[in-house]
Design a protein that fits this description.
The complex is a heterotrimer of chains A (418), B (468) and C (390). Chain B is built from 20 helices and 2 strands. Chain B has 468 residues and is an all-alpha fold. Chain B starts with a helix and ends with a helix. Chain C has a two-stranded antiparallel sheet. The chains are: A alpha/beta (418), B mainly alpha (468), C mainly alpha (390).
Amino acid sequence: MLNRRVRLQPLVLFALILGLLLSSSFVVAQEGRVIKIASQSPLSGGQSAVGVGIRNGVELAIQQLGGNLRDMGFQIQYVPYDDQASPDVGVANAQQIVADPEILAVIGHYNTGVAIPSSEVYNQNQLLMVSPANTGPAVTDRGLPIVNRVVGRDDLQGPTGAQFAASLEDVETVWVLHDTTAYGQGVAEFFRQEAEAQGLVVLGFEGTEERANFDGIIQPILALAPDLIYFGGIYDQVGIFISQARAAGYEGYFMGPDGIDSPDLAELAGEAVVGTYYTTVAGPASIYPNAAQFIEDYTEAYGEPPTPFAAQAYDSAAIVLAALERAIEANGGELPTREQLAAEARATENYEGLTGTITFDDNGDPEYSNYYVLQVVSADPAQWSSNTVISTIQIPSPLKAQELAAEGEATAEATPES
Amino acid sequence: MATVTSAAQQPIRALRNWAARPAVATALILLYLAVVLLVLRGLDRRHLWFPTFSTLAFPAFVLSPFIVMSAPISRRLKTILIGGLILIAMPLVGIYDTSYLELAIQICIFTGLALGLNIVVGFAGLLDLGYIAFFAVGAYLWAMFTSQAPTVINISGLLVPAWTFPIFLIIGVGIAAVTGILLGLPVLRLRGDYLAIVTLGFGEMIRVLARNLDQPINFTNGAQGLHNVSPPPIPEIWTSFTSSTANLMGISLANVTPVAQQLLFYFVGVLIVAIVVVVARRLDDSPIGRAWTAIREDEVAAIAMGVPLVKMKLLAFAAGASFAGAIGVLYAAKQTFVSPESFSLIQSISILAMVIVGGLGGIRGVMLGAAVVTLLNLQVLKNMSLQLNALRQMDFVIFGFHVQNWPTQLEPAKYERLVFGLLLIIMMIFRPTGILPEPRRRIELQHDDVVTDEDDVSPAPGPMVGAN
Amino acid sequence: MASVSRGLAAPSWSLRLPPAVRWVYDYLLYPIGQMLVFIIGAAVVLTLLAYLLAALVPEPRPNIILADQISRQLPGMIISGISIGFVYAMIALGYTLVYGVLKFINFAHSEIFMVGSVVGFEIMRRIADSGTLQQWNPVVLIVTVVLVSMLVSGLLAVLIERIAYRPLRGAPRLVPLISAIGISFFLIDFVRATEAITRNDFNLRYPTDQLPWLTQSVALQFGTTTVNVKPTSFIVVGGAVLTLLALNYFVNGTKLGRGIRAVAQDQTTAALMGINVNFMISLTFFVGGAFGGAAGSLFGMNVGTVTPYVGFIPGIKAFTAAVLGGIGNITGALLGGLTLGLVEAFLNGVLVYFPALGQRYTDIFAFSVLILILIFRPSGLLGERVDEKV
């Protein structure tokens, strides 16, 4: 019993010291109203190359474009969260993010499978989310008022890939793999549907979680020798697969969606990567006419050229900042509520970003987005941004397409009358 | 030498005696609580070092019931203080800053899980490394019947309304208990290492099944997880109660519903933990508990004494599992999202770490362990990441090191394995009985200094004393 | 008690043979023959089962004749099964050796394997960074990489035993088991942190693509089908066979090996006979760890990229292999590893044609085997009944 009594003392002392320590903190607390912007992307683990690029893009945007808000008397803080590319961690972070009343917007995520459940949490708390990289249709198709994205969609990206594959002369049969996540499986399904519609023979459709030894998975592929392997997944898995499949004697083409768009793919796949095709919703930064300054600033700040989706992250943050400015003005110089900000962001119209002009449709998709087909030219990761752009197509979002079709009908109906 | 020590100890002893006086102790405790609450109230989110301060202050608050419990004050005062802390202070702190409420719910969830695992490992001595599977069963139960994901249950219109939540808590208990028995039956003969590895295999299999059962028939929506899981409905009166409480505190909640929701989950969590504590304590003191102890100490001797081995082992599995099932239902409703990755081996190990750190077999110790490990994992590590990021953006320099150059892969939030691993090793080597050892176990788990052969047949006095 | 004592070596032989012939027979012919028997036996049984399935379900998917596919894939499946099977076997040996001596499952062994693969990466990466990779003789390079990772992993295993297991000897069984789990978790993040600080990288890629002789696949002709085999598969198999032969010689042909066997049989008596029990236990950990390390670097070379998390799955599969063969039994580990590797390769090759299931169900198989064997025949294929003393 005596033993226990002793334990009390240090704790009380600890609390007193803590109190003293903290009371000093009240004195130095910073003045001014604070706005926090959070981001969620994989900062550690196998997919960190792109995730860190997203964080850097947001950080740069807040540094460069936050001036107006600072002049209005607000302090902007940036809180990057690491979602570890895991839905579980993403949701746990989201719970923490919404609990911080000063966070008014989130830029994220990288993985569709993480974005969908996390955005449900944001939605319950009316917290604005602008996604720089999620392409899964379900991200916006749920019609949540808070979810927006600056990139295209997998139900258009997958078919773009399939059409390109069908246009290759020596491709008649394909093998489709995916990583069983919402993103990989989704885009692979869209690819398969369009490939079949284009008259390609889909020899196999397999999901795999394997990350190290693909030997057993490759054997049936070798036996059927498809002309092209489409892997709906992320580069940290696809890169290893490409290297092993080539070493095992596979001679056809490799193709993948924007998930494999990362210099780390070249790092992981080695020489075998050369010639790989990929579709993406984010062209290399150098393709955008407005991005020259961004590339320079980014390279200076972070010591490497911007990774894919860094420019998109920059644009996402810029859209949030612009919406904040408008919302504050509308609110008479006071902080807007999360709800007001989300509505203001959705109303974004003709925003001139690095990656194009962005207007959100009613679901939060950009009305028009570009879909690129690229080919890897070198096994050197540093050369990633010089991959050849084979084709660029601009496609309207489904809602915009409906609108256009309705307009078309309207004009078609109107014409005979006039 | 001796005189020097005693001379140095003199004032300490005096201080100790002084602090042990009931009046002084009560005053000290109240002072402590007041300081902690004031600090929590005064923390400024905008401050550069906020993550660090909050990491110091909130654990100090969470640990306060345990401090009160071990203080030399009257029983009645203890009850009042602990009740007040859990039922009044915590909700108020939570309304003031909802991130603490979130942590408090997580602590409730893990405390419940740790207490459940403690029945299996601590009471009956059956090392279960797949305990998280029962949690998964509960979580998937509620998620499958309420998720908007395109599962077979959703498509065939079998979704249940959200008000059935309390009923599902009970169904969760039942289903998890049945799963526990189903797992228990085949492994009855196994002991020690073998049992551990088979349960690990079971745990992984449940996870892999959850991950793959979107094909051929979609039950679990596979790796994508079940999203849009319904939380239970909140009564109108509860919402208005929450907002008026907040108003009383001088806070205007912009969005009452999520806070009211979290608050409701907190109270449901506390209720479940309370039930678990009562049941566990009653079980431990009952003939069943003594039978478990006997099995844990020596299976053969237990059989010889007439302990019904099969029944008792199955009961241990079922009892442990049933708690996890109910908590799983709560977790799914709170998280509104369930995916297979939430139920990986690391979760089983983290719960095991809670039980070990706190003190195998003891209820109070296990609760303390759960609180400490959950805080470490969800608050301390995460806040270290946030603190680093805050410093990084300031281009903070510490001892000539630019925080900006901190490698991104060294994100502290991701190093929970390091923490669990070190905790387990250190506890096993230096204090296998845990922070608050259960008296019976304390005797048993003390090492024999003599190196005996591998089957540890040494007639240590411990077990016999422990068998009561 | 099933134990290390029955290694790969031939049973005692009454025929009088010249010592040299005897040596060749005991340490070369017999173990190699045993491996061949295991491989051929498992392959034949699995092939028959596959064709049986093909007879039952001739066309699981339109335009896919299962029997034809199996015939076409057969050599490839067998080769990939053997190469991963040897990796499993080598890891399984680590579990089995330690179990044989201490009756204790070394949970941290899968991370010793992981450390081996990371060490292999570090060496090759460093050589490549210095720009001299192409100048190395292939054999010397591989031997260096494998030997260094064996050494590091072996020493690590000894260190783990000293820090986390030895102080707990004599404590209740749960105690060292839990500390082993702790070690395993700690090692994963320790390696992760080390690589984070030194390279800020998570995926660790062997610079194999700089070596043409490692990336050019070898075309083998089997009747009408040509099979391209990765050169690393040959390295894995060759390396595994050589190290297994060395282990066999060590355990059965040397004094130290006899010491280990003695300790495995009875520690007290061994101590009375003047054997340093603690040294023998350390030695066992070293040998087991070294095998884990060798398996790790060979596996790393074969797959190209490793991460700090690479150990768990092969580790649990190798444990399954050890249990399948009969834990504590060296021959059993070999049989279990090869069987499991081949079974997985066949499952991968066949399940792919069943759209409702697919290859993703392959992994469930390993766990099911583990559980079923532990429940119905805990002694494994070759083990004796393991009754726990009380």
